[in-house]
Structure formats: structure tokens, C-alpha cells
């Protein structure tokens, strides 16, 4: 009887052990997920076989047979769907990258302006924020595309800026550079200068922390970045030759062109996201204790230096996490490009390629994987930066 009682207590202690239950539930969850995944895969494969649809990624080697309005790499209609995928990916990254930079700059300016003691500046920033963050981004894209870009004059009546930049309803035409013999020395001098500026900035920060004496890092950096590459140009020659767009017939030839779809999408996403970033910056600045500002002023720091050296560095610890979400939203909102025909991943790959090949599962899986990879990359980079600036308690 004693033996049975001990065995019963042993079994009871096993099932009531939190660690055992945790492992058991995790194993059951994994089995359930695997079983569901296998069921979906088998069901999909069966339905594809019944309809005579072949699966796999061999279609990526087939010729696309259609043109693309914008491509950052060489492309012809004879190229494969795999190359179309690369072009769509690069176009998506281009919009996302430019949009993140512009939205961050504009958002920080508006966030600081929202707290300005100047009544007019504060109200203008408030009107901007409350207006653009409450209008759906797709409508803003339509506004910039149909009401602004397509309303521009024709190429023959282009808006001319200095004889080198031309804006019309077919896009913005820019001079394009071509490398010369002086490019390699210029690039080497620029890289060395940038490394030197980074090392100098670190030294200046350590010097300030040790002695309290500021070093003019910004002015010195600007001087070095201008003087050393400029001296290299004088010695080795101009690193570039510029091809200026020229009006030939009914359109411009030569140079670079930003198509109306790219301009409209970039402006709309940047302006829309900047309104949210401005509120994040405002809340981050207000989260810093007012005693920090008073201490900085008691030390004789000007309002500009107080904001740059005291308030902003501390507010970044509050700003970065929600800022990451806005970067992710901007990257995902770039898929709205399909509304105006900009050749991004969704428009090109999940649109044209899917319609031509019928490989719905493969195309959608690739597109989803691309956006997942972009989002995870942004999150990893921002989380790394957030950990780097985090306060470390001693």
C-alpha cells in the first residue's frame, strides 16, 4: 500500500510540475502546427494536380516579354521573370529607402516645430500633422500623381532649373554622372576622409566627457570633407563627366529620369509618415524631464545646444521603438504603388507576372517573403541601434 501511494504521488508531481506541463504543451503545439501545415500542403498539391497546374519555380527562367517603365539594372523584354523579380525588389527598396530618409528629416523638423514657442510655427506644424495623418495614403498618392504630376506641362514647356533639371508630366530629368580617370583617387580620398571624421568624432566625444571642453566636430568635419576631396579633384582631375538631358523631338534624351509614379509615391509616403513621426518626436522630447533642460540652461547652454546635446539624445530612447513601426509601415505602404502603376514588387511580380504565369502560390510566397525580409531587416537594424543608445545602469 505504501508503494502504491508513493507511485501515485510521483505521478501527480510529474503532471503538476510547471516545467513538464510547459514542455508538453509546446510539443503538442508543434505537432498541431506541423499537422496543419502538412494538411494544407497536401490539399493544395492535390488541387493543383486535378487542375493540371504545375508547381515549382522553373517559370523564373522563362522570358517575360513585357517592358518596364523604370529599372535600375539593364533590362529587355527578352529577360526572364527572375530578372523582373530583381527589378521589382530594387524599385521597392528605392522607394522605401528614399521615403524613410525624407520622412525622418521632415518628421523631426515638424516634431520640434510643434513645441516651438513661436505661435505661428507651432500652429503651422499642428495643421500639417492633423491634416496629412488623417488622409489615407492612397488618396495622397492619387493627389500627387493625378492632380500634380500629370498636370505638369509637356516636355516642350518643361520647368527649367538652371538648364540642368527639367520637370514635366513625364518626370524629373537630372544630369547623370560618368566616371573618369580621376574617380578612383577621389573615391579613395572620400573614404579615408569619412573614416577620419568618424574617428575624430569619437575622440571629440571622449575628450568632452573627460574634460568638459567641447570640440568643434561639425565644423571640422565639413572642412575636411570639402578640403581633402576638393584637393584630390585639383590634383587628379574631375572624377565625373555629366550628361545633361536634352530635348530631342517630343521628349528629353540622356541623363537620369525620375518617372511621375516614383515622385508621387515618394512624396505621398514621406509626407504621410512624417506626420506620425512628428508626433513621436514631440512625445519623446516631452518625456525628457524638464529638470534636464533647466540644468543645461544653468550651465549656460543655448536653447539649440540644449536640444541637440541634452534633450534629443535622451528622447531617442523613447522615440526609436515607435519610430521602427513607422519605418515598417512606410515599407509596407509602398505596395500601394500598384494604384498608379509604379513597377514595384506587388505591381510587377504579384500583378503582371502572376497574370501571365498563373503560378499564384509561388508568386505570392515570394512576394510575402520579400516584404517579411525587408521588415525583419529594418527591425533588426533599429533594435541594434536602440540597444546601442540604451541607458546602462551601474
Automatic annotation (TrEMBL):
<keyword id="KW-0472">Membrane</keyword>
<dbReference type="GO" id="GO:0006865">
    <property type="term" value="P:amino acid transport"/>
</dbReference>
<feature type="transmembrane region" description="Helical">
    <location>
        <begin position="256"/>
        <end position="278"/>
    </location>
</feature>
<feature type="transmembrane region" description="Helical">
    <location>
        <begin position="134"/>
        <end position="152"/>
    </location>
</feature>
<feature type="domain" description="ABC transmembrane type-1">
    <location>
        <begin position="89"/>
        <end position="382"/>
    </location>
</feature>
<dbReference type="GO" id="GO:0043190">
    <property type="term" value="C:ATP-binding cassette (ABC) transporter complex"/>
</dbReference>
<feature type="transmembrane region" description="Helical">
    <location>
        <begin position="183"/>
        <end position="203"/>
    </location>
</feature>
<feature type="transmembrane region" description="Helical">
    <location>
        <begin position="360"/>
        <end position="385"/>
    </location>
</feature>
<keyword id="KW-1003">Cell membrane</keyword>
<dbReference type="InterPro" id="IPR000515">
    <property type="entry name" value="MetI-like"/>
</dbReference>
<keyword id="KW-1133">Transmembrane helix</keyword>
<keyword id="KW-0812">Transmembrane</keyword>
<keyword id="KW-0813">Transport</keyword>
<dbReference type="Pfam" id="PF00528">
    <property type="entry name" value="BPD_transp_1"/>
</dbReference>
<dbReference type="GO" id="GO:0022857">
    <property type="term" value="F:transmembrane transporter activity"/>
</dbReference>
<feature type="transmembrane region" description="Helical">
    <location>
        <begin position="336"/>
        <end position="354"/>
    </location>
</feature>
<dbReference type="InterPro" id="IPR035906">
    <property type="entry name" value="MetI-like_sf"/>
</dbReference>
<comment type="similarity">
    <text>Belongs to the binding-protein-dependent transport system permease family. HisMQ subfamily.</text>
</comment>
<protein>
    <submittedName>
        <fullName>Amino-acid transporter subunit membrane component of ABC superfamily</fullName>
    </submittedName>
</protein>
<feature type="transmembrane region" description="Helical">
    <location>
        <begin position="215"/>
        <end position="236"/>
    </location>
</feature>
<feature type="transmembrane region" description="Helical">
    <location>
        <begin position="85"/>
        <end position="113"/>
    </location>
</feature>
<keyword id="KW-0029">Amino-acid transport</keyword>
<feature type="transmembrane region" description="Helical">
    <location>
        <begin position="20"/>
        <end position="41"/>
    </location>
</feature>
<dbReference type="InterPro" id="IPR010065">
    <property type="entry name" value="AA_ABC_transptr_permease_3TM"/>
</dbReference>
<dbReference type="InterPro" id="IPR043429">
    <property type="entry name" value="ArtM/GltK/GlnP/TcyL/YhdX-like"/>
</dbReference>
Amino acid at each position: 500500500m505504501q508503494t502504491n501511494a508513493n507511485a501515485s504521488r510521483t505521478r501527480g508531481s510529474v503532471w503538476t510540475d510547471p516545467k513538464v506541463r510547459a514542455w508538453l504543451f509546446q510539443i503538442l503545439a508543434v505537432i498541431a502546427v506541423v499537422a496543419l501545415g502538412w494538411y494544407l500542403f497536401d490539399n493544395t498539391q492535390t488541387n493543383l494536380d486535378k487542375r493540371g497546374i504545375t508547381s515549382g519555380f522553373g517559370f523564373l527562367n522563362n522570358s517575360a516579354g513585357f517592358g518596364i517603365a523604370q529599372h535600375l539594372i539593364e533590362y529587355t523584354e527578352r529577360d526572364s521573370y527572375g530578372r523582373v523579380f530583381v527589378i521589382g525588389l530594387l524599385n521597392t527598396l528605392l522607394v522605401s529607402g528614399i521615403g524613410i530618409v525624407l520622412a525622418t528629416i521632415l518628421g523631426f523638423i515638424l516634431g520640434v516645430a510643434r513645441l516651438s514657442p513661436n505661435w505661428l510655427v507651432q500652429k503651422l506644424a499642428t495643421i500639417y500633422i492633423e491634416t496629412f495623418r488623417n488622409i489615407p495614403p492612397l488618396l495622397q498618392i492619387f493627389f500627387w500623381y493625378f492632380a500634380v504630376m500629370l498636370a505638369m506641362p509637356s516636355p516642350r514647356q518643361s520647368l527649367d532649373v538652371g538648364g540642368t533639371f527639367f520637370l514635366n508630366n513625364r518626370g524629373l530629368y537630372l544630369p547623370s554622372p560618368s566616371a573618369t580617370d580621376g574617380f578612383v583617387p577621389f573615391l579613395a580620398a572620400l573614404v579615408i576622409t569619412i573614416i577620419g571624421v568618424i574617428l575624430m568624432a569619437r575622440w571629440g566625444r571622449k575628450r568632452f566627457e573627460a574634460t568638459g571642453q567641447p570640440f568643434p566636430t561639425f565644423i571640422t568635419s565639413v572642412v575636411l570633407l570639402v578640403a581633402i576631396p576638393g584637393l584630390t579633384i585639383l590634383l587628379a582631375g574631375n572624377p565625373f563627366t555629366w550628361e545633361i538631358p536634352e530635348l530631342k523631338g517630343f521628349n528629353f534624351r540622356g541623363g537620369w529620369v525620375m518617372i511621375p509614379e516614383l515622385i508621387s509615391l515618394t512624396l505621398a509616403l514621406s509626407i504621410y509618415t512624417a506626420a506620425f513621426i512628428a508626433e513621436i518626436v514631440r512625445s519623446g522630447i516631452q518625456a525628457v524631464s524638464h529638470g534636464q533642460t533647466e540644468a543645461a540652461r544653468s550651465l549656460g547652454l543655448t536653447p539649440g545646444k540644449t536640444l541637440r546635446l541634452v534633450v534629443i539624445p535622451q528622447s531617442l530612447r523613447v522615440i526609436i521603438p515607435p519610430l521602427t513601426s513607422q519605418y515598417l509601415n512606410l515599407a509596407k505602404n509602398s505596395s500601394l504603388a500598384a494604384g498608379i502603376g509604379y513597377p514595384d514588387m506587388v505591381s510587377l511580380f504579384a500583378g503582371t507576372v502572376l497574370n501571365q504565369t498563373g503560378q499564384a502560390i509561388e508568386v505570392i510566397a515570394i512576394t510575402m517573403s520579400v516584404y517579411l525580409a525587408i521588415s525583419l531587416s529594418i527591425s533588426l537594424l533599429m533594435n541594434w541601434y536602440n540597444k546601442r543608445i540604451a541607458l546602462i545602469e551601474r
